[in-house]
Amino acid sequence: MTRYGRMVVRNALREIGEAQQGEAELNTLASDTARHLDRAIGGGVTRVFNMTGVLLHSNLGRAVLDGDASVRIVREASGHLALELNVHTGKRGNRESAAAAAICAITGSEAAAIVNNNAAAVMLMLASLKRGARNQVIVSRGELVEIGGSFRLPDIMRVANVKLIEVGTTNVTRASDYFEAINARTCAILKVHTSNYAVRGYTRVESLQALRPIAEAEHIPLCMDLGSGCLVDMTKFGLPKEPRVSEAIKQGAQLVTFSGDKLLGSVQAGFLLGDRSLIERANHHPMKRSLRLDKIRLALLTETLKAYQSPQTLTKRVPLFRALARSHKELQRSADKVCETLAPMLASGYSCRTIEAACEMGSGSMPGVTLASLAVEIRAPSQAALKRFDQRLRTLPVPVLGRIHAGALLLDLRAIDDVGALLTNLGGLGSA
Fold this sequence. Notes:
The chain has 432 residues and is of the alpha/beta class. It has helices at 6-20, 26-42, 67-77, 97-107, 118-129, 153-159, 175-181, 208-218, 245-250, 276-283, 287-291, 295-308, 314-317, 319-324, 328-342, 383-394, 419-426, and strands at residues 49-50, 85-86, 91-92, 111-115, 136-140, 163-167, 186-192, 222-227, 255-259, 270-274, 351-362, 365-379, 400-401, 403-405, 408-412.
């Protein structure tokens, strides 16, 4: 009653009583109610150890934030702050000014608008480009992506009140396809980086450079949805080249959208960058206010962007890049410590050892690309026993999440920042 409040407990008792449809002992009713409340609302935001082998896990909050910086920023931003006040002039300011200035400096963009997520950025971009009867947006059929959770580009376009004009085929779209689709009602050409899938074999997609002269000749904005929001050269981390925001702008995209919580490594946010006059239209669109970020996320986002202004400290200040830069030697030390901690707890028939593994980026970023890693492999007398052990890990004070693969439970080490905290937490298993 004290923990949840009288009304919440009363409603839970009513639901459980209706479900049981009969008399229940008081002790049973109390324990059932406690479990019901814990499942429904008791957990709240639960921190976990991500050992799944997916660095940007959509179900686990995607990009991790730097702990020390986050605590400091949230403490400062939780009080009164000059969010929309220019303290030098004493006049009203722009809440996005610091973050917008930072992202423009990093990418070479003229201006920026910042919203809740990339879907919102795409929607705002398209809605602001629509002008009366000019409401058609040309998109390659092979780039009509679904971004997860059944949110599809055609749906976003429909909400933005623009009409989709598909060109080309699933695997081949040529510059001539775009050119032939242009008419008096065309308001934009949109290219989409298919960051969450890859089409192989006989394929052809046109580059921004190829479409730029067509867009310029017809005075139509050329737009690019980059999705994952890469700002740095990923080959430095042993990964394939990924399209960067700065490159898209240089190659002729007048507007570029992307996420803040994927390869950028920050909070959930959506960026709209590019031509100053087009950005101003977006910032003055009625839709913009309903999509804007709150003060806490803006402060955290600005802190992450500051790290990009000093690239030499990027791996220290942005956990995603710290994970990508983690050496085999460091991973080996961490894996050995986990094995040493778990081994004495395992009953007869169980075993653990360090194995070579491969992790992936996740959240629709760099599909099919893996990064070498190490994992602790746990085997049990049976699959049922393995699943019970996996469940025990998930019920620790800080749940430990691995993945079951090829008859074993794998605990990948690449995403683990604080091995000491992990080992202390694993001590809560007791004898397994």
